[in-house]
Amino acid sequence: MGITGLAKLIADIAPNAIKENEIKNHFGRKIAIDASMSLYQFLIAVRSEGAQLTSADGETTSHIMGTFYRTIRLLENGIKPVYVFDGKPPQMKSSELEKRADRRQEAQKSLEKAEEAGDATGIDKFSKRLVKVTSTHTTECKELLKLMGVPFVEVCLIFVYLFNPTNH
């Protein structure tokens, strides 16, 4: 779900907590990667001529290409990635999911208006807001990671609930 503005908050309150390093400085480390966020990034950013990359039969492949090349870059730099996939969302997230669905509907309306007006910038902007990671995207990336020998885990949100002190 993320925390909006967390990086800025940390930078403002504890600037020494954030350090920028070259990737080579992390040689030998194991890192956890938020797989869902990565897939969104790849579906939005890995494009050709404004559209997602696709296979010969029209299936989206941006998420596969992004995952593959990011993983290769990490491995080449001696970093051992572990991808963390979200499990089923908890009930307490349902209101946030409803808000996201509402925002997606608004983006769809705005996209249609931009298309009618021939507004290329608006079309690009609103089509990116409609990107959604599907279970197929997730399954395909898990299969890729298996083939690459890269570990991944699926978060079991019951643990988040059980170990949250506010629930007891």
From TrEMBL:
What are the record's GO terms for cellular component? nucleus
**GO: which molecular function terms?**
5'-3' exonuclease activity; 5'-flap endonuclease activity; magnesium ion binding; manganese ion binding; RNA-DNA hybrid ribonuclease activity
User: SMART domains recorded for this chain?
Assistant: XPGN
InterPro entries attached to this UniProt entry:
PIN-like_dom_sf (IPR029060), XPG/Rad2 (IPR006084), XPG_CS (IPR019974), XPG_DNA_repair_N (IPR006085)
Keywords from UniProt, A to Z, are:
DNA damage, DNA repair, DNA replication, Endonuclease, Exonuclease, Hydrolase, Magnesium, Metal-binding, Nuclease, Nucleus
Any single GO BP term: DNA repair
Family annotation (Pfam families): XPG_N (PF00752)
Q: Where is this region: Disordered?
A: 90-118
Limits of the XPG N-terminal domain: 1-107
- Locate the compositionally biased regions of type Basic and acidic residues: 95-116
Role, per record: Structure-specific nuclease with 5'-flap endonuclease and 5'-3' exonuclease activities involved in DNA replication and repair. During DNA replication, cleaves the 5'-overhanging flap structure that is generated by displacement synthesis when DNA polymerase encounters the 5'-end of a downstream Okazaki fragment. It enters the flap from the 5'-end and then tracks to cleave the flap base, leaving a nick for ligation. Also involved in the long patch base excision repair (LP-BER) pathway, by cleaving within the apurinic/apyrimidinic (AP) site-terminated flap.
The name under which this protein is listed is Flap endonuclease 1 isoform X2
The species this protein belongs to is: Aphis craccivora (Cowpea aphid)
The opening ranks of the lineage are: Eukaryota, Metazoa, Ecdysozoa, Arthropoda, Hexapoda
